[in-house]
Structure formats: structure tokens, C-alpha cells
Amino acid sequence: MKIAIIAEGSYPYVTGGVSSWLHTLLQSMPEHEFVIYAIGAEQKDRGKFKYELPSNVSEIREVFLDSYLQEEGRPSGRYGLDPNQIHALKSLFVREDAPDWKQVFDTLRNADMKSVADFLMSRDFFDIIHQLCQERYLYVPFTEMFWTARSMVVPLFLLLREPVPQADLYHCVTTGYAGVIGSLAKHLYGKPMLLTEHGIYSREREEEIIKASWVKGYFKDLWIDYFYKLAGCAYHYADRVVTLFNRNREIEIELGCDPDKIQIVPNGIETADFAALPGKEPGDERIHIGAFVRIVPIKDIKTMVQSFALVKQEMPQASFYIMGPFDENEEYYEECVQLAEDLGLGSEMFTGNIPLFSYLGKMDVLALTSISEGQPLAVLEGMAAGKPFVATDVGSCKELLYGAHDDYGEAGIVVPVMNSERIASAILTLCRNTELRNRMGENGRKRVGEYYTKKAFIDAYKSLYQSCER
Known about the structure:
By secondary structure, the chain is of the alpha/beta class. The chain has 18 helices and 13 strands. The strands form two sheets. A seven-stranded parallel beta sheet has the order 3-2-1-4-5-6-7, sandwiched between helices. The chain has a six-stranded parallel beta sheet with strand order 10-9-8-11-12-13, sandwiched between helices. Helix 1 links the parallel strand 1 (2-8) and strand 2. Helix 14 packs across helix 17 (434-451). The longest helix has 21 residues, at 217-237. It is globular and about 80 Å long. The N and C termini lie close together (10 Å).
């Protein structure tokens, strides 16, 4: 079977998380041919892959959300849009209206439309925004509304006009733009669509927009609702929706996904790989506290650094390691390094990308301070290695560390988001009690071995792929 994987902001440009999960999936399915439709943020990343693509990947199609910078629109006349087409496009900006995505797809892929940039400078688009202002945004300056609406839909409109590879199955690994492209493929070719949602993409975008300084207050709701509409498109077109744990399922249902479509398939790892990791050097009495994590804002590294500084005050002999790539957001990385230096921790705690299996066994306590997660592989890997975790209450961390299906006991401590004092207190509790660390580590090892194995994860997807064949 030829399967098109549609990914956004992850594989093959970024390591860890969804990318690692997807790479494992590709490697474990040699019987299938895969085409990768990769949606990246910036053209400068073209061809800069962090993974060696498996031999069963026959093609990679790269598209970038900043490609609109290469288009220069010229004011144009009208495209002869009928009332249904106008209503479909206008509904992208109206909270109460569910877009007719078939109309949206057909309108934007019309051969008469020579370029997206020209359309967005056309009288048709001008009239759509003018009507919106008269009907719903009477007190919003028209020019602000026009350029906000334009900036919202430019990436989507451009993506919808890109060629979509033909395949037997379309597998989107997020909603957002990837989910819409999978929906378009199903619309064009009538082939089944599978959606896997690790974190809830629309909720993550909502959190970002609420905090964003580049969006004026009265436009925040417009942007947030727009991303929920993109998610609704994917939920509507998907034949099956796969998520990682029950709370995600509940949120998807709240957002309008048909509960009969949803199936829970947890992440899984090869537990045998973590059975005999090298430990600390003989005579090393220090407590080693670490995090295997990308240095990006959603992981809230600044709160982690602040909590480590508090631990250092109580336990000067502790050593700290933040292990993971920093090139995804170098400005944020520099801010984190500066914070660590200001707090007396030093920049050497940031190791960059290092071999997981060489360092994981040396840690006494692991930390995760994210403000949003799905079912983090870093937590599963730490549990498989028998390491206790301090993790924020996001995604399925509470389910992983406290259990939902077993009586193994706690495998770590769950703490509130962005609370450096509570995070530090939990880390100190584990640092001061060797027996507690060992017991929690063993509880985690048992839980992963029963419920979160690579074999179970791959077998579930093999069955899903087979059920989608037509």
C-alpha cells in the first residue's frame, strides 16, 4: 500500500517527539511504501533533514508556510464567485459558521485563479472583508481587519493550491494545515484518511495566541477560532482518528469529533533497549538531575532553570543537565543560557544533542516542565530506564506517572505548570530519598513494560492501515 504521511512542523526537520514516533513507524513498516508531505515553516530549511529517510520512503514533498513571500500580488478585478463560494470563504472568519470545505477547496483550486496573491488583492476578497466589517466588526478599523484576515489565510490558500501526491491512504499526524491537506486529498481522490493527534493542535495554538504580542486583543478570538475551524475540517473528513490517551479523546469530542471515529493507541518504545544502560562512574556521589528536551518555549526551559537554581541552593552538590537540540529557536536558547548564568548555574548545563543511551543511565532524577504535551516519549524512555520523573500536569503525564490501568504505584511526582517552587520541592523530595527514587523508578519500568511497548504500538497501526484499505 502507498501511504502519504502529512506532517507539519516536525519530521524530518525536527528531532524528538512526533518526529521520533514517525521515524519508528516508517522503519517498522517495510511492507508499505511511504510518501512524506512535509509542511515546514521556512524555505531556509529545505533539504535540511535530521533523519536518514528509510528505504521505503519513495518521495518527500516539501512545502513551506513562508512561500507567500515569493508572491507579489497585483490589484485585480473579479473572479465571478457565486454566493455559495463567497459564503464559504467568509465563513472562515465567522465563529458561528462552519465552512463548507468542499466549496473552499474547489474555489481556491479553480484554474481561473492564477495566483493566491492576486486573489487576495482582488475586488472579491476586498468585498468579503468589507461585508464582514459591516456585519460583525463594525468598530474594527477596516485596514486592520483586511490585513489580519489576509495574513490568516495566506498560508492555507497557498497550501491548498499545491499538488497533492496520489496515494492509497493519507495519514495526517496533526490537525492544522496538515489535517486540511489530508482532507483535500480525500476530497480529490476519494481515498481514506487517518488522523493521529498527539497533542491537541488547536489548543496549543490557542495558548500561543493568548500570550502573543503580535496579535491585538480584539483579533485574538478570530485567530483562535480559525485554528479550531482547521481542526474541525480534519475531524470531519477523517475516517479514523487516533489519539494517545483518554483525556485527548474527551477534548476531541468536545471540539466536535465523532466519538465513533476515535481510537486510543498509546505511544510505545522498545523496552529492551533500556535494560542495561551505563550508570554513574564509581565513586560519583553527586545527584544528577537531567532533562532530555528540545530547547523551545513550549517546553518552558526557563521555569526548569529557575527550579534547578532553587534546588542548587538546598543541595549544592547536585549536577544539572539539559540535554537536547537548541537550533530550532536559537533566540530562546540564548535567553535560557543567560538566565542560567544569571542564577549562578553556568551555561555548561546545556549539553546540546547527546546520545540518549550514553547519558540516561547516569541520571538520578529526570524533569519535564512543558506547558503542553501529548504523551511524551522522553517520559516513557525515562520510565523504561527506571528513572523517577518530576513532570508538569500536561498531556498524559499524570496517567503515565500515577497509572490508569494498574496498581504498580507512582513513578514520579506531577506538579503544576510554570511553578518553579513546586517543581524544585518535588525534585528535592526525590534527591533526598534514595529508596523512594528506586521504588518509583521500578514502578515506571513495570508500567511501560506492560502498557507502552513498541510492539503494541506498531501492531495497532498495522491493523489500522489494513482496515483502511479499499
